[in-house]
Write a structure and sequence with these properties.
8 helices, mainly alpha, Endonuclease Iii, domain 2, 2 domains, about 0% strand, Endonuclease III, domain 1
Length: about 180
């Protein structure tokens, strides 16, 4: 997750596939060292800082958590390179916690549709947590990301293909071309 900031899933997956073939535990990744890790992730933006944070984090996981990912927000956010969004993703996807990590897609969809308007990701997150029914909180994160990635896109939203177009309050709706 540390690698995903300012990068696409495609670029992270391409970089980590060969890495995980030789190092797929915190101890094994830490053993590669910062310079070794940089060689694997140099195609990802901010790779210098990310490599340092990943190695520091792997060392902490080995030394303090028996190579296991901690399960609390406080412990996660104390790891180098892990902020609220990354902690939310880990809590949601790895541990099934009802959190919503607000990325650029969720921020855009929430503000365009007015389901959870806010000037900051934290404000949007807080509104979504109040608005989304408990039964859907674990999956809402993924649904909103996919909607923002493939339908409510940044530059050319596909409003005519949107299943909630009649409910959406986006004033600059894009009508499908004839």
């Amino acid at each position: 997750m540390i690698l995903s900031a300012q990068a696409t899933d495609v670029s992270v997956n391409a970089a980590t596939k060969p890495l995980y073939e030789i190092a797929n535990t915190p101890a094994a990744i830490a053993a590669i060292g910062v310079d070794g890790l940089k060689e694997f992730i140099k195609s990802i933006g901010l790779f210098n800082t990310k490599a340092e944070n990943v190695i520091k984090t792997c060392n902490i996981l080995v030394d303090e958590y028996e190579s296991r990912v901690p399960r609390t927000r406080k412990e996660l956010e104390a790891l180098p390179g892990v902020g609220r969004k990354t902690a939310n993703v880990i809590l949601n996807t790895a541990f099934g916690e009802p959190t919503i990590a607000v990325d650029t897609h969720i921020f855009r969809v929430s503000n365009r549709t007015k389901i959870a308007s806010g000037k900051t990701p934290r404000a949007v997150e807080e509104k979504l947590l109040k608005w989304v029914p408990d039964d859907f909180k674990v999956d809402a994160h993924h649904w909103l990301i996919l909607h923002g990635r493939y339908v409510c896109t940044a530059r050319r939203p596909r409003c005519g293909s949107c299943v909630i177009e009649d409910l959406c309050e986006y004033k600059d709706k894009v009508e499908p071309a004839d």
